[in-house]
Amino acid sequence: xxxxxxxxxxxxxxxxxxxxxxxxxxxxxxxxxxxxxxxxxxxxxxxxxxxxxxxxxxxxxxxxxxxxxxxxxxxxxxxxxxxxxxxxxxxxxxxxxxxxxxxxxxxxxxxxxxxxxxxxxxxxxxxxxxxxxxxxxxxxxxxxxxxxxxxxxxxxxxxxxxxxxxxxxxxxxxxxxxxxxxxxxxxxxxxxxxxxxxxxxxxxxxxxxxxxxxxxxxxxxxxxxxxxxxxxxxxxxxxxxxxxxxxxxxxxxxxxxxxxxxxxxxxxxxxxxxxxxxxxxxxxxxxxxxxxxxxxxxxxxxxxxxxxxxxxxxxxxxxxxxxxxxxxxxxxxxxxxxxxxxxxxxxxxxxxxxxxxxxxxxxxxxxxxxxxxxxxxxxxxxxxxxxxxxxxxxxxxxxxxxxxxxxxxxxxxxxxxxxxxxxxxxxxxxxxxxxxxxxxxxxxxxxxxxxxxxxxxxxxxxxxxxxxxxxxxxxxxxxxxxxxxxxxxxxxxxxxxxxxxxxxxxxxxxxxxxxxxxxxxxxxxxxxxxxxxxxxxxxxxxxxxxxxxxxxxxxxxxxxxxxxxxxxxxxxxxxxxxxxxx
Length: 582
Known about the structure:
Layout: H1 2-12, E1 15-21, E2 33-36, E3 45-50, E4 54-59, E5 62-68, E6 75-79, E7 93-98, E8 101-106, E9 109-115, H2 123-133, H3 139-151, H4 158-164, H5 169-179, E10 190-197, E11 207-213, E12 217-221, E13 228-233, E14 238-246, E15 250-257, E16 261-266, E17 269-270, E18 275-276, E19 281-286, E20 290-295, E21 299-304, E22 309-314, E23 319-327, E24 333-340, E25 344-349, E26 352-358, E27 363-371, E28 374-382, E29 387-392, H6 422-433, H7 435-462, E30 468-469, E31 476-483, E32 488-497, E33 503-511, E34 517-519, E35 523-529, E36 534-543, E37 552-557, E38 567-572
Antiparallel strand pairs: 1-29, 2-3, 3-4, 4-5, 6-7, 7-8, 8-9, 10-11, 11-12, 12-13, 14-15, 15-16, 16-17, 16-18, 19-20, 20-21, 21-22, 23-24, 24-25, 25-26, 27-28, 28-29, 30-31, 31-32, 32-36, 33-35, 33-37, 34-36, 37-38
């Protein structure tokens, strides 16, 4: 029994199995999982807001409270709106973000609903809808004005976007008649929510909600969550947000946007330092020294606050969640928890891998913090709906990796390096003395190579020899393939008009070795090519050579207005089977 327990403990590393519920039926993400001391008695509870519009509170292994939410939750947070009074336990308030609303719960009862302010409508859009309401312009003219405003960069409301998505004039008229008398308003929605301490780092100190919205704004609410104290606009729609510091002294808010950028807000002002990511972010964690951001190309990047990259961690699978492991009571530890799509939960200390936990399921939500009386607890929700609780060993060594540190053993094997000859020494001396001239000649030749390549590519496109034609304002794609073993083949042509205008009366012809092949219909017209549709034509090719020799057949899409073909393709024919005697 002891050997079994020791093997299980070594398999899970510093994690102790506390509880596993495969039938929890939870569908939630990391932003909807919180650990908080609800009653001020030092016993932390687990709060989970489900995508099925249910909020549950766990104590140990039991559900002690459950309530139905009014909308699909985006994030859950616990904060302290009041000062702590001597001798009176302080109970936090719960905030549930859903759509444009924040539902505040006190003593597990609905207390207040905060609504985000409406987004300002652009004057040009207001003018169009006012004219439609007064019947001053028709539907076609309004559609053109809204389309022009959208093309010029104006952010339109959802009503105008719905109108522009309709192509039928009758449907557009019916839509306008149904909404033109209603007030033109645009409501934003919440994308992320965190908590910022006001003036003390104490766990029960007064705190404030920080909200990120779809309208590219980050708002800080007052402690009572009834008004907006600070509102800052960033350059993109926030997807993830990390908060640190004190509002009255100094604070930082790091925002990762959907377009792959990191913005930093310091004391209510957006800093000029913007970090450009190579791909879209899928996780964000902030420590005292640096910022960790996970991207969809299976990489974790570490940046300094000023934008300098520290290092990158390359992972074998996509990243589903990322969480900060922070211990401060018994000891001070800051590590990084990373959940992968193959079911692994990896623990990193800076860029060193400490241990790997296998869950055999895709982790959808992860949260680390105090649960019950234990300081270090890891909460995992998986794709199957299960709930897992792991406890961190109090004496776990998180400083050194369980894997062997240092370079691989192959590095100690000496390489068979040949001796330096006199010619090699003279050549290196010549390169050292003429390094600038060699680099200049290399750059000149490289630029010439690029120029000649570009010219050749343009000539291929203009002569109609490429896989796609852009001559005469047309955009055509041609794909030709051969089917059959012979002597009868079937040549399939796939034509597609990638432009915006339809094409008519396009001649199609073939050139081939008439001693080897016979094409019954070696010339035909394509009557029309509608943009976006794929047209397929079949041509029968017969091999007439007794030995079954092979050659190539060229396909030309011609233009009645020019001697040059619009497009051409070369089909390499296979060897033909012998014709069977009659």
